[in-house]
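FW: tagging you since you asked about this chain on Friday. Here's the raw sequence from the shared folder, copied in full. Didn't touch anything.
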Amino acid sequence: MKKRSTCLRCKRPSSVCYCHTLQLVDNHWPVHILQHPRETKHPIGTAAIAALSLSHCQLQVGESFTLQSMAMDASQAVLVYPGEGADTLDALDRGVPQTLVFMDASWRKSHRMLMESSELHALPRVGLQLDQASHYRIRKSKFEASLSTVEAIVHCLTFLEQDEKKYLPLLHTMDFMIDKQISFMGAEVFERNYLSKL
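HL: got it, structure written out here
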């Protein structure tokens, strides 16, 4: 059987490549994404959209991390992750950009990554105060207020830079990817597996 071609840039099958929708956006707050190895195999992961769209974004794959491996200064970084002791985004000084660290993993795996990385665990932490539903219509989460990685990144950067439109291109790319996936699975399958669960 002939192997289907894959885009070398977005790593998606050529039939669902989204590269033509990507726009480079110059983010003032650097982004560092820590991705669990299992997420690299997810067919509709969104971390790559951020990595390909933002001018200041690093994507690092692994299960445990140190500040040295992340090439990061603890005094200039903040972990975006909910939990006890997490401040809100309001606590950050918008005039002094820091590196925003995100984890791209399931909740269970991200918690384990955090527990196995003491230096990561020691970073100042902020959580998101969400007032919107996720656009990620084909992924289930037991948490009602749950965003995909790229949505969380857009939410933070939009708030910190106070620009409602600047990061919308990243969401448009995500919407294109999801719409393509739904068109391939068919409306009946989508409705049965996702809409019926709402």
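FW: The chain has one domain: 25-133+144-197.
HL: agreed, and The chain has a mean pLDDT of 87.
FW: great, closing this out.
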